[in-house]
Amino acid sequence: MTRVLLATRNSGKVAELQRILAPYGMSLEGASYEPGPETGASFADNALAKAREGVAETGLPSVADDSGLTVDALNGMPGILSARWAGRHGDDLANLQLVLGQLSDVPDSRRGAAFVCAAAYALPDGRSEVVLGELRGRLIREPRGSNGFGYDPIFVPLGYDVTSAELSPEEKDAISHRGQAFRALAPLLAAALPA
Which residues are catalytic? Predict the structure, then answer.
């Protein structure tokens, strides 16, 4: 199996993506270094920068992602600022409450949103590629469900009557923006790796 770095220290994300990449003959490992800040202007910029940083730090083929919530009524925000929308990185409850507050006067018919993920690979020879995954849906007014994290408790995927936080992990993986992006990236990376 080819060793591939996932440019994150999030062990849950490593385990999730290992399931996607294993059928392509790749063994995924997490970063042992602290990834740098996300300073790009788009999900794709941030994912590619993290993948290239992974190659620079380890010399291994590297994959990375950047993802977040885009809200139609907020002109696509919080977008790349999703994890720190309320000011402090990773304060899921504050981020969710701020979005709900910003949408309090928006009618249900205009509460469209999407989870977006850019997944990238970078190789030691300089080649790289980025793909996008998107899960469309709508935002509800009160959180529901205890699975998932971030904005999952207020996001209802298109075609569903439950929030992402009410889906089982397997159900969510099957439709998620991250799953879509990495399922599209995996065969591209496999084809680019040396035999």
Answer: 66
| % of the chain residues with pLDDT over 70 | 99
H or E segment to which residue 5 belongs = strand 2-6
> From edge to edge, which strands make up the β-sheet containing 26-30?
26-30, 2-6, 62-71, 112-122, 128-139, 155-157
pLDDT tens digits, 6-37? 999 888 788 878 878 888 888 889 999 988 88
Cis status, amide bond into 78, omega within 30 of 0? yes
Q: Which residues of 70-90 are buried (b: 16+ CB within 10 A; e: fewer)?
A: bbebbeebbbbebbbbbeeee
The pTM score is: 0.92
Give the span between the Cα atoms of 20 and 34, in whole angstroms: 24
Domains of the chain by start residue, with CATH: 2-192 (3.90.950.10)
